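Researcher: Structure prediction, please.
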Amino acid sequence: MGLLMAWLGCWQLTRAAQKRQLLELNQQRGQLELSLQDLLVKEDRYGYQLSLEGGFAPGLTLFLDNQVYQGQPGYQVLRPLVTAQGLLLVDLGWVPQGEDRQVIPAVSQPAGEYRIRGRVARPYHPPLRLGGPEEEWPTRVQAIDTPRLAARWQRPVLPFVLILEEGGSWPELVRHKPDNPMTPERHIGYAVQWFAMTLTLAGLTLWWWRKGAAHDDDKEVE
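Model: Predicted structure follows.
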């Protein structure tokens, strides 16, 4: 058991180093702005800045469920931007759920062309999907499944999401950077806990061994 806990502590330190490298890489990529054509030729696209111009497909809105902001439940609102390469899902921001969960919040849909800029991110796929209505439009979804959306909309959907940072105007939405729940510091904190438990177990084992040895000595004296 002690060896396992020590291994888990070392594993958390390794994860902290990996997460730190990933954050540094994303910070470097966040300073580079690419066109959509340049982005599509890259195998690893996430973290770059993307700037483009276009209009949103009318009548198509996704409400990504189970999104909490400042302790309040709500949705990330996504709309597909029409590009020559396919529909690009743009995360416009967060909206509160409201008192009645059965009622989808109203979000304005202004027409026209937009010049937007944002950060390229992975489509959201939670490890565990919760049940919920997914067949009504506007659609409340538990994950961003681009192949399914492409089949539903009968149009190509690009396999990444643009988190909007500049451009457009949706006053009812809150733009914010999603919190990263597993920072390097948190991994280090877990590692410290595992090492502390390892030392505690070692100390208890040593105390138990010494107690047993002293008991045997007392028997020999008798």
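Model: The chain has a mean pLDDT of 79.
Researcher: Thanks, that helps.
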